[in-house]
TrEMBL record:
It comes from the Bacteria. This is 3-oxoacyl-ACP synthase. Residues 104-185 form the Beta-ketoacyl-[acyl-carrier-protein] synthase III N-terminal domain. SUPFAM superfamilies: Thiolase-like. Keywords: Acyltransferase, Transferase. InterPro entries: ACP_syn_III_C, ACP_syn_III_N, Thiolase-like. Transmembrane segments: none annotated. Pfam families: ACP_syn_III, ACP_syn_III_C. It comes from Oceanobacillus luteolus. Residues 243-330 form the Beta-ketoacyl-[acyl-carrier-protein] synthase III C-terminal domain.
Length: 335
């Protein structure tokens, strides 16, 4: 049985409270709490980068697993990493001591964790030489935001952290079931970092115009096209993942989504018939690129939300735009 056998998270020590964000952004503190759904978020210090955050999370899992038993290391975290053209996965493979593993990266911004879990399961299923895959991710996207740019307002909840998951052939904790993924590439140019790539290489002008930060060229245009399809696409991938797993949406017990504004979180729960206590909402962490659903599994298990036989779904969406969900059956009773 192929499943997620362990998860871990790493929380940077520094915090940015809703009050501090209000001062930075000019948005009232109560709006950040009530609309953004954020009391505080974690912020990594200058010396900690995405790879360091990923490694720190991975080390927690390897306290109870021999690093030499890991066959593959996959980095699934933020594309905003230590260096522009560089593999965080190889650094993780080395620093974690997983000498028998090869490594590579999966990059699909915030939607990546449900996809990475699917890929890990498929790799183990198709290759009998693979028994354990370690997924590691880091996010330092709080540093990629220009809080003076109102066009990037919806990204003011971007935060930092590390997360890891061990996917194993003979798992006893959970079973990875089916997945569903939708991409609508018409949104490919709606969220990006304008400067620093081959279109606008690094220059004095790029720095002066602050185009090396994430931006939304046409916020209203994106909203008009995204709002009508966002919840329907979230709902569709959740339903399809559950149904492809041989279950009914009424069997769904726990939802582990990315961190969104509070109204969208509530709409999403309503669309699949769940209550707020049946989901993890990262009010004290913020949105950490692809890491959110992995944080969700870890925090849900810690809170005793996952019981033997429960059907859970990890679900996320990433700019570009891709919606992804993977269903998981929990095999152990909560402690």
């Amino acid at each position: 049985m192929i499943g997620i056998q362990a998860t871990s998270i790493y929380e940077p020590a520094l915090k940015a409270t809703a009050g501090e964000l209000a001062i930075k952004t000019g948005i009232p503190e109560e709006v950040i709490i009530e609309k953004f759904g954020l009391y505080e978020k974690r912020v990594a210090p200058e010396h900690e980068h995405a790879s360091d955050l990923a490694v720190a999370a991975g080390k927690e899992i390897l306290k109870s697993v021999d690093p030499l038993e890991i066959d593959v290391v996959i980095y699934f975290g933020s594309p905003y990493k230590d260096y522009p053209i560089w593999t965080a996965s190889s650094k993780a493979q080395y620093e974690l001591g997983t000498k028998n593993a090869y490594s590579f990266e999966m990059m699909n911004v915030s939607s990546c964790f449900p996809i990475a879990v699917k890929v890990a399961k498929d790799m183990i299923y198709s290759d009998k030489s693979i028994n354990h895959i370690l997924l590691v991710g880091g996010s330092k996207e709080s540093q990629a935001i220009n809080y003076e740019n109102p066009r990037s307002r919806f990204m003011f909840n971007f935060a930092d952290g590390g997360a890891a998951a061990l996917v194993s052939r003979n798992a006893t904790k959970s079973e990875i079931l089916a997945s569903s993924i939708i991409t609508d590439g018409s949104f490919h140019a709606d969220v990006l970092v304008p400067g620093g790539g081959s279109v606008h290489p690094v220059s004095e002008e790029v720095v002066q115009e602050k185009s090396h930060y994430l931006d939304v060229p046409d916020p209203q245009g994106m909203k008009e096209r995204l709002d009508p399809v966002s919840i329907p696409n979230f709902t569709r991938v959740i339903h399809e993942a559950v149904e492809k797993s041989g279950a009914n949406i009424k069997d769904l017990k726990v939802l582990l989504p990315l961190h969104t504004k509070k109204s969208m979180f509530r709409d999403l729960l309503k669309s699949v018939g769940l209550q707020e206590e049946q989901a993890v909402y990262l009010t004290h962490h913020g949105h950490m690129s692809a890491l959110d659903p992995c944080f969700g599994i870890h925090l849900a298990e810690k809170a005793g939300m996952l019981n033997q036989g429960d059907l859970a779904v990890i679900v996320s969406a990433g700019t570009g735009y891709t919606w992804a969900a993977t269903a998981i059956r929990w095999l152990e009773s909560a402690m």
